[in-house]
Amino acid sequence: MYYPGCTLMTKAKELDRYARKALNALDIDFLEVDEWQCCGAVYPQASDEIATRLSSVRALEEAQRKGCDLLTLCSACHHVMKRVNHDMATNKDIQTKVNNYSEFEVPYLGETKVVHFMELLRDVVGFDSVKSRITNPLAGRKLGAYYGCLLLRPGNTMMFDDPENPSVMEDFLRTIGAEPTVYSYRNECCGGYMALDNESLTQNLCHSVLKSASTKGSEGLVTACPLCRYNLDKNATDDSPKIYYFTELLAEALGVKE
């Protein structure tokens, strides 16, 4: 089941639109979660903060009840969903309180597998299979993967890739015909929500990312995170790499981008 999340319906429509086009081009059938709600945007650190977890658990429970994995796209949604699901699988107190509040017919205990779109391409479809569908390879494009922090950490819960030396997005870029550039700040934070109360900190972090990528010849940076794209775009200069959603480049390589 596909969980789009609220940002993909407002400020990050391209991330969602091109994902749907790519799924169709790859002949992947999917259902959207019924009446989904915001995931909460930020993972609740307090173990007694139950209300913030409820909307995520509702989507997870629906996927489990219908016998599906839960497919996510936004880095923040994926981060929240996967960590809340881990709580539901491992924390008895949170399990009890959430299930008492939600009154599911069958208690939800973290059974759903949360899969990011990039993991779907790598582990389910397979990059070789994706490559066989490419009609417009992005040959000659030097692009840098920008992971940020939410997809990778904490590594023992997210299990997306090696948090210190990830490679899945570089493998994806090779699959669509581009030349990946590896630079020092590709898995560093952009500043995230600190942009709201410490704009100068976010500006400095984004400048470090953009400069690091530029020194390796990156003409563009590729992300799955709407907040990362916003912060990087806002703090870019005229000579900074252009910021892309990975689904946009996938749709272009598959020949289904408008």
Task: Please summarize the sheet with the most strands.
Answer: 4 strands, parallel
State the name of the first-level CATH class of the largest domain.
Alpha Beta
Beginning-to-end CA distance, first to last residue: 25 Å
Number of domains: 2
Helix-strand category: alpha/beta
Mean pLDDT: 96
Name its key features.
258 residues; 6 strands; four-stranded parallel sheet; globular; alpha/beta; 2 domains; single chain; 45% helix
What does this structure look like?
- The strands form two sheets. Strands 4-3-5-6 form a four-stranded parallel β-sheet, with helices on both faces. A two-stranded parallel sheet has the order 1-2.
- The chain is 45% helix and 8% strand.
- The chain has helices at residues 13-25, 51-65, 75-90, 92-102, 117-125, 127-133, 155-158, 168-175, 199-215, 226-234, 246-253; strands at 70-72, 114-116, 142-145, 179-181, 220-223, 242-245.
- Helix 2 (51-65) packs across helix 3 (75-90), helix 3 (75-90) crosses helix 4 and helix 5 crosses helix 6.
- It is of the alpha/beta class and 258 residues long.
- The chain folds into two domains: 7-117, no CATH class; 125-253, Rossmann fold, CATH 3.40.50.
- The mean pLDDT is 96.
- The longest helix has 17 residues, at 199-215.
